[in-house]
Specification:
The chain has nine helices and no strands. It is mainly alpha-helical and 284 residues long. The chain has one domain.
Length: 284
């Protein structure tokens, strides 16, 4: 991720939504300070303790929320790291055991296309087979990663039946080829199993209640400094929640989502370095 993306994430954890909420909190807190008449000094300790208690509860909820969201992001990152390794290993072994450059070329087109097709599939986009000099057989496939992985397996089996590779090499190559769909299936599981909406609604209800009550509970203790305390609390609470919402869907295009374009590009670079004799100029 580029340096400017880190800066952007630090300044605006949730983009425009974050700053809109921060503005609302600021205006509300300033309003509370303006109308406060300090008529309940005897309740200072009780009210400040209440603020700490509510803040502690919110902190625990946000810890679980952040851990759940980051776990999804990290699992997705490990899957794409595995994809990089599987394709590299498959490319290296194919280069070593296969003699015919045309067979290599037909197979490598599939390995180049697979990560891009998976990226588009996870983002709900359309994948163009022609970009990689591939064409659909009979009908246009609805699941492009599955279609490309099936073609790769067919090629391996064809090499075995034609005697271009023996059974032991076929088993070794097929192990890497089968991993492509295992990775695809695991990514689909993350994509189609979002964190329960009721849980996220509960978090937001807690945040709203805390932001509404916090100025009233803190103002007898801090007076005009309440604005600073509440704004700092809001920055971290809202920032953590909006950041969690962003990373819990790791396959998107937001700043903190997985850099899938970069990963796909790195796979392409690796393949082209492994097969320099093919002069591959295919790209998405």
């Amino acid at each position: 991720m580029h340096k400017k993306n880190y800066i952007h994430s630090f300044i605006a954890p949730g983009g425009k939504k974050f700053w809109l909420l921060m503005t609302i909190v600021f205006i509300y807190c300033a309003f509370v300070i303006w109308i406060d008449d300090h008529g309940f000094p005897a309740k200072t300790v009780l009210e400040s303790d209440s603020a700490l208690t509510i803040g502690g509860i919110m902190g625990l909820l946000l810890v679980f929320r952040t851990n759940s969201a980051y776990e999804r992001w990290w699992e997705a990152r490990k899957l794409w790291g595995q994809l990089v390794n599987e394709i590299r290993n498959l490319s290296i072994k194919t280069q070593a055991v296969l003699a015919n450059d045309q067979d290599k070329y037909e197979f490598i087109k599939l390995l180049l296309a697979f990560p891009y097709s998976l990226k588009n599939h996870l983002r709900g986009g359309v994948f163009d087979l022609k970009v990689f000099d591939l064409h659909a057989q009979k009908i246009e496939p609805s699941h492009f990663p599955q279609y490309i992985a099936s073609l790769a397996s067919q090629n391996l089996y064809k090499w075995k039946t034609e005697g271009k590779i023996d059974g032991f090499i076929w088993l070794e190559l097929d192990l890497h080829a089968r991993a492509l769909m295992d990775i695809c299936g695991s990514c689909e599981r993350i994509l189609k199993s979002p964190i329960a909406g009721a849980y996220k609604q509960l978090i937001w209800h807690g945040i709203i209640i805390y932001m509404v009550l916090a100025p009233w509970l803190i103002i007898p203790l801090l007076d005009n400094w309440t604005l600073v305390a509440v704004i700092l609390s809001a920055y971290f609470i809202l920032g953590v929640e909006l950041l969690a919402e962003e990373v819990e869907e790791p396959f998107g295009t937001q700043t903190n989502d997985l850099p899938l374009e970069t990963i796909c590009s790195n796979i392409s670079i690796s393949i082209k370095e492994i097969f320099p004799q093919l002069n591959l100029d295919l790209h998405q």
